[in-house]
Structure formats: C-alpha cells, structure tokens
Amino acid sequence: MKTLIFLMFCIVSAAAHSDRLLDPMPRTMTAHQFELPDVSGTYHKLSDYQGKFVLVNFWATSCTVCRAELTALEDMLDILDDKNLLEVLAIHAGNDLKGVEELMQITPVSYPVLMDMDLTMGNWGIPTLPTSYLVTPDGMFAYRVLGTRIWNSPNMIDFLHEIFNDYYANK
C-alpha cells in the first residue's frame, strides 16, 4: 500500500510542474484538418472551431485511463466555462460505436465525441492512447500530451489560463 501511495505521489508531483503539464510544439505547424462524425452522425470539422483553443483528445473504449480522462476533461470545461475560450473534441480511435454509445450513457459529456472509425487521423502522430493536442485559435499546433493528465487540477487550470493570456497578449 505504501508503494502505491508513493507512486501516486510521484505521478501527481511530476504533473504539478507547469513545464511538464503539456509538451510545447513548434508554432510553425498547422493542425491537420479533419471531418469526422460524432456518435449521432453529425459531422464536425476542426475549422468549425476556429477562433477558439481546441483540445483534441484521442482515446479508445479499450483504454481505462482514457475513459477516466473524459470526466476530468468535462470538469476542466466546467471550471473554464467563464471565458468560453476552449473546446474539447474527443476522438475515439476505432469502430466501437456501440461501446462509445454505452459509455456516453454512463458518463455523458457536453463536448463532441467523434468517431475515427477507419483510423484516418494517423497524420496527427498518435503514438499512444490517450494523446491530446492543444490547437490555437488560428489553427496551429501549440502543445502535445502523451498519456493521461489531471485536466481538472488547479495546476492545469492555472497553466491553461497562462496559455490563453499569453496567446491573446501577443495578438
């Protein structure tokens, strides 16, 4: 039990440093456009969200930490809602539509859950699940996250506010 508590402390401590919350990407790369259906069949394009930051989260129902992250992303949006600066797009990797629908009944979220049935999003460079990208309002890659994060933690919320403030201060 002590080992488990120590490991959890190490994970939370490592994530508590703002330089490790999100990995910066060169601001010279435009995010790859896509058009994918959500679970109800409505298509979404990345360009539909131009003018806002977009957190694109790649996940799968077979990934336990991915499923848990969906709730943390929802909580993060609730906390950040006052500014309406960020959209989350959760992209399920694979064709488990039934599994996604069942999960959404148990764990509903307010953001779009899109289906990459044919795994066409490979051009985003997704080495593991979950993987997330933060895209700027002008469509540029800003940050990448390999693995899970505690999206609703105070450190993450503060770091996201810093990102938003820095972006708009330099525009």
Give the secondary structure arrangement, pairings included:
Elements (H helix, E strand, L loop, with lengths): L1 H14 L2 H4 L1 E2 L10 E3 L5 E3 L7 E7 L4 H17 L5 E8 L3 H10 L6 E4 L14 E5 L5 E6 L7 H16 L2
Describe the biggest sheet?
A: 6 strands, mixed
Identify the CATH class. Answer: Alpha Beta
Q: Structural class, from secondary structure content?
A: alpha/beta
Count of DSSP helices? 5
What is the topology, as strand order, of the major beta sheet?
1-8-7-4-5-6
- What portion of residues is helical? 25-40%
Termini separation comes to: 50 Å
Mean pLDDT: 88
Low-confidence stretches: 1-19
Strand content: 15-25%
Number of folding domains?
1
Count of individual beta strands: 8
Shape: globular
Order of helical and strand elements = HHEEEEHEHEEEH
Rg for CA atoms: 16 Å
CATH topology: Glutaredoxin
Based on the coordinates given, report the CATH architecture. 3-Layer(aba) Sandwich
Protein described:
With 171 residues, this protein is an alpha/beta fold. It has a single domain (24-169), classed as Glutaredoxin. The protein has helices at 2-15, 18-21, 64-80, 97-106, 154-169, and strands at residues 23-24, 35-37, 43-45, 53-59, 86-93, 113-116, 131-135, 141-146. The radius of gyration is 16 Å and the shape is globular. The N and C termini lie far apart (50 Å). Residues 1-19 have low confidence and may be disordered.
